[in-house]
């Protein structure tokens, strides 16, 4: 199993090292480390957690040409590594259910899915989350901030992906909601400080945006 994880690390790194939307190899590496940390404390299956964490963005439409082809790539990889079919199904279930997608996803069910989802969401919080938000907005061509745009509360997946927004709007449309959506006790504990960093950043941002002398 260790060999399968190591080979999968090399495979994903070769695909995502130069990705430029904030979903690059270093994001995968951080999420995998966070998932390992949470899994050990929550009693989750480490092999399932680490494999799902490593592969979770390959089927995401932010990275893949489309979800169907991305998912096929993951399936083909798991088969090539001779992962037992039952484990393949568990890994694929995690990959296809943990994404935020505008808040339209159903709650995940397995402990391993909860762990990976928490780890992925933690990387969208704190200083790293702030940095990734502006990288992603730039990659999409969204502005840093546009005060004429309304903050969207409820969105379809299509609206969330392609509707008019900005980097700062993303804080309100997703990031500030994540602490309340954490699944595990460990995830909730880790989210608290990172959530406060988001709030402090926004406070400072708006003080500077509406500068008065």
Explain what the structure shows:
The longest helix is centred in the C-terminal third of the chain and has 25 residues, at 185-209. The chain is mostly helical. Helix 1 runs antiparallel to helix 2 (25-42), helix 5 packs across helix 6 and helix 6 packs parallel to helix 10. It has helices at 2-16, 25-42, 46-55, 67-80, 85-97, 111-122, 126-140, 157-162, 167-173, 185-209.
The portion of residues assigned to helices is 55-70%
Main structural class: mainly alpha
Give the strand content. under 5%
Q: Runs with pLDDT <50, length 5+?
A: none
Keywords summarizing the entry:
single chain; 213 residues; 0% strand
Task: Please give a quick description of this structure.
The protein is built from ten helices and no strands. The protein has 213 residues and is mostly helical. Helix 3 (46-55) crosses helix 5 and helix 7 (126-140) crosses helix 10.
Give me the secondary-structure topology.
Layout: H1 2-16, H2 25-42, H3 46-55, H4 67-80, H5 85-97, H6 111-122, H7 126-140, H8 157-162, H9 167-173, H10 185-209
Helix pairs in contact: 1-2, 1-3, 2-3, 2-6, 3-5, 3-6, 4-5, 5-6, 6-10, 7-9, 7-10
